[in-house]
Design a protein that fits this description.
Layout: H1 9-19, H2 27-30, E1 45-59, E2 68-79, E3 87-89, E4 102-107, E5 118-124, H3 135-143, E6 147-152, E7 160-161, E8 167-168, H4 179-186, H5 191-200, H6 204-215, H7 219-237, H8 247-252, E9 255-265, H9 267-278, E10 284-288, E11 306-310, H10 321-327, E12 331-336, H11 365-385, E13 401-406
Parallel strand pairs: 1-4, 5-6, 5-9, 9-10, 10-11, 11-12
Antiparallel strand pairs: 1-2, 2-6, 3-4, 7-8, 12-13
Helix pairs in contact: 3-11, 4-7, 5-6, 7-9
Length: 408
């Protein structure tokens, strides 16, 4: 799983600049000494494996070679008790400071033997984000019986490995963000201002007017969202093509697509919303702080539940409520106090320069990770497994968390 490409210091600096974190960092300065991921809280051992899927109906728009779109899948799942061998290294990462981090998962481990097939969760990372940076959350879900398929959207992530072993990123050979990446970010220049206006408005019709006006100008963003949704559909459509004798094939044979949830962080959460709007295989969707909801949901309705988790970012809480309250059936809103946008991923453990910027809140890393895991797990337990969520039912499990439900 540790298929690390050769990415130099200038590349790292450019990636971080794109992410808005820093413009003068080195790989060793980004992350302090290697941290330990919190142990999974479920009863199952965890396995991890990876595969790639090619979409012969789409050419890759980030290159001029005429090659077809390839999508990498990083899977986490309940595994049989370990027999021998060590734990998998942290998945693909461009940061040298993470090279020694180990997961709690056995690489290519055999799936656990259970009475039923595994419920499935599809996960998408944030736009230009680091796919490995969600390992703690995805491992924990797997330890509770879920098979989690983390979809790496090539050229719109820090790194993705193609079938021939090439590692591709969001940067060109000069370390500059690709033109399509710059085009997307260029459309977001007024987003903070607009979301602030939306959250200050007290009338739902005015909120929709402001949101619709902003969304109308996101042509490049819509194309990026379309790619991510199509990548997500591809992974599910092509499960039968995974070689049956491989670890991935053994896992694919144990997946229950009839119990399918979709979630993601940031742009990945927005992808979950659009996928669940379009694809009836989605039984429930969840968005971790992806604001606003791009795409066509503003004008449509979907007969399935959706949960939105808001951090305490100023001017963002409630920004998509006018969309979700009308579209989702039901809609759950969860607010987590003292958090910022990156508290829902492993970056909360990184420390260093991240702690000097307004991208992490004041919650202790283990507390933020625990809260995120419980929110996500209890929601999907309720919607996919019919196990009532005490958190969504109103029990105050965490003083930092508030829950509102807008009924069907």
């Amino acid at each position: 799983m540790n298929r690390r490409g050769s990415v130099d210091t200038m590349t790292i600096a450019a990636i971080l600049a794109v992410l808005g974190l820093t413009s003068a960092a080195t790989p060793r300065g980004v992350v302090r000494a290697a941290f330990e991921l919190p142990p999974p809280t479920g009863r199952y051992a965890v396995g991890t494996t990876a595969w790639r899927v090619t979409d012969s109906s789409r050419h890759e728009t980030f290159t001029t070679s005429g090659e077809f779109r390839q999508v990498e899948v990083l899977a986490w799942y309940p595994a049989a008790p370990p027999r021998s061998g060590g734990l998998a290294a942290y998945p693909e990462t461009v940061f040298d400071g993470l090279a020694e981090v180990r997961t709690h998962a056995g690489l290519d481990a055999a799936p656990a033997v259970t009475p039923r097939k595994f419920p499935v969760l599809l996960f998408s990372h944030g736009y230009t984000s680091i796919p490995s940076a969600y390992t703690a959350l995805l491992e924990d879900l797997a330890s509770h019986g879920y098979a989690v398929l983390s979809i790496v959207h090539p050229y719109e992530a820090t790194a993705a490995t193609l079938a021939d072993g090439r590692v591709v990123s969001l940067l060109d050979n000069a370390g500059t963000p690709l033109p399509a990446i710059r085009d997307v970010f260029g459309e977001w220049g007024t987003e903070d201002e607009t979301m602030g206006a939306v959250t200050r408005a007290t009338d739902a019709a005015e909120q929709i007017r402001l949101l619709r006006g902003y969304l109308a100008g996101l042509r490049r963003t819509d194309l990026a969202l379309r790619r991510s949704v199509d990548d997500t559909k591809l992974v599910i459509d092509r499960l039968s093509n995974v070689p049956p004798k491989s670890a991935a094939g053994q896992l694919a044979a144990r997946l229950d697509i009839g119990r399918l949830g979709v979630f993601g962080h940031s742009m990945g959460g927005v992808t979950a919303g659009q996928f669940c709007l379009e694809d009836r295989r989605c039984r429930a969707g969840l968005n971790l702080d992806g604001i606003p909801q791009y795409g066509t949901m503003i004008d449509k309705s979907m007969p399935r539940p959706f949960l939105m988790v808001y951090s305490a970012r100023p001017g963002r809480s409630g920004a998509s409520d006018a969309i979700y309250r009308r579209a989702a059936h039901p809609y759950y809103r969860v607010d987590v106090r003292d958090t910022r946008h990156l508290d829902f991923c492993d970056m909360v453990f990184w420390g260093g320069p991240l702690r000097e910027r307004p991208v992490l809140g004041t919650l202790a890393p283990l507390r933020a990770t625990e809260i995120t895991g419980v929110i996500v797990r209890q929601y999907f337990d309720q919607e996919l497994l019919r196990q009532r969520s005490t958190l969504l039912g109103g029990m105050p499990l965490f003083p930092e968390v508030s829950v509102r439900t807008f009924p069907r």
